[in-house]
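Annotated sample (chain length 460).
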Amino acid sequence: MPRNAGRRKPPADAARCALVEAGAATVVSVECRHTTQEPPLLYDLTTPQKDANTQYGYTAEHTLAIVQKLYESKLVTYPRTGSRYIPEDVFAEVPDLIGTLRDHPLWGPTAAALMAAPLCRRSVNDGRITDHHALLPTGVRARLLTKEEQTVYDMIAVRMLESFSAPCLKDVTTVAAECSGTKYTTQGAVTVQAGWRGVRNVSAEPEVRLPAWHDGDNLPVRAASLTEGTTKPQPLHTEATLLAAMETAGRDIEDEAVRQSLQECGLCTPATRAAIIETLCTRGYVQRVKKSLVPTEKGLALYSVVRDMRIADVAMTGEWEAALARIEHGELKDTDFRHDIEEYTRQITAELLACDKLFAHDDSALLCPKCGTGHMRFYPKVVKCDNGACALPVFRMKAGKLLSDAEIQTLLREGRTGIIKGFNSRQGKPFEAALAFDESFNTVFVFPEKKRNGTIARKK
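Output written by the structure step:
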């Protein structure tokens, strides 16, 4: 007896066998609907970086450099923008900008046709403008460009033509047929009006024109097969997908105000995202393998250390954006925000410098002068209270001088040191001073002051 005898056939295989035996399926529904695909918005800085990476393999940094050069040559508008919209006054100039492309060898016919038709206003919104409006060609004739410069310039010009073109209209037909209790569906799509997709003759899906089937029609079975597949892990990031992820970071944050702030700005700014990716590659945290970005052992090790630290909290960006919005509306003082940023910087710096995985430390019997319960741990760059609720940091580096253990021990025991030499001002001038704790246990300088009789008084 065969090994599989008596076993129940999988449902898919059973349905296939039933379909073959029946020899036909009966149409049970035919649904036709009209769909509208709106034109894409104009380019900000990030979108051409993504497109150039996907289509031509350009790095984000390289695309930014090309767009910057086009801007300096007065061929495109200001590139470091996060907006994909233009105001009404700029929209009034768009017909003339389109007219400058009438002689273009590829896009001339599209430009001429677009000048004779109403322009789509989807990218026109005064309320969605940030510091700078969306990226546009200026109308200055492009001459003597390199191949890569011409490629990026054409991307910007074509996006303008697409954005102001009519929508793409399609008729989509969905047919359902049934056999032995199993339902089968197929779908066809026919373009009624190419609209913006006709600019480059690119469609999101191929044209599929179905026969004129009706309810009750019997469709003969010509062939039947099963396709078996498995789920696949998420692919490695390319620069295009990483830029997209940075744009949409924070979607899973529970706080509505913070999530909304991140939704509007994403992670970092359009002008800094390319530099961040380059920094990751330059410092050896990520390496490029063909089009993919692959984390290195060094990068994975760093991630394992900082993933649960405050510095890796993506909500921070949203909180800052929300705070800046409150300042703009007069609900928060800028001095309070600046104080919070300074405190945050001290905390994350101390947390990093005191990390056992990054830096070894020596325990001590010195009580924390702030909480009085924790003991001070000595790290190469910071001395920190081991009481998590306190975590007072005392940084070793002050004005270009690395404080010794003895100097820090004196500060911790007495709240003040004697005169220490070897400090340097921001102007590079050497000076000497004592160190002391202020009322918030920040380390401050106490400078000596000479009196007329030659004695020395101590002045903060």
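Annotation: The chain has a mean pLDDT of 87.
Annotation: Residues 396-460 form one domain.
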